Amino acid sequence: MEFRPDGTLVDYAIGRGDAPAPGPPGRWETTGRLALPSGKTGQVVNTFPDRLEIDWQP
């Protein structure tokens, strides 16, 4: 997952040959709210130096 400074969120899936493939861009907000174009939303619930915990809603 990539969080870009302009508020764009790119979710990477495993693609051909196990290489990461970017999906369509979504949006993130400084409040921790995340939205993907599929309609899936999430909320960052905890942060650590090496990971984020996200509560995803279908």
Describe the structure.
This protein is mostly beta strands. It has one domain (2-57). The chain is built from no helices and eight strands. It has strands spanning 2-3, 8-10, 12-14, 20-22, 26-28, 33-35, 41-48, 51-57. The strands form two sheets. A six-stranded antiparallel sheet has the order 1-2-5-6-7-8, with no helix packed on it. It has a two-stranded antiparallel ribbon with strand order 3-4.
Quick structural gist:
With 58 residues, the chain is an all-beta fold. Helix content is 0%, strand content 55%.
Order of helices and strands: EEEEEEEE
Spatial strand arrangement across the major sheet: 1-2-5-6-7-8
Total individual domains: 1
Q: Number of helical segments?
A: 0
pLDDT averaged over residues: 94
What's the gyration radius in Å?
Answer: 12 Å
For the largest beta-sheet, the strand count, sense and barrel status come to: 6 strands, antiparallel
Structural class: mainly beta
| Gross morphology | globular
Helix percent reads under 10%
What does the secondary structure layout of this molecule look like, with pairings?
Elements: E1 2-3, E2 8-10, E3 12-14, E4 20-22, E5 26-28, E6 33-35, E7 41-48, E8 51-57
Antiparallel strand pairs: 1-2, 2-5, 3-4, 5-6, 6-7, 7-8
Features:
0% helix; 58 residues; two-stranded antiparallel sheet; mainly beta; six-stranded antiparallel β-sheet
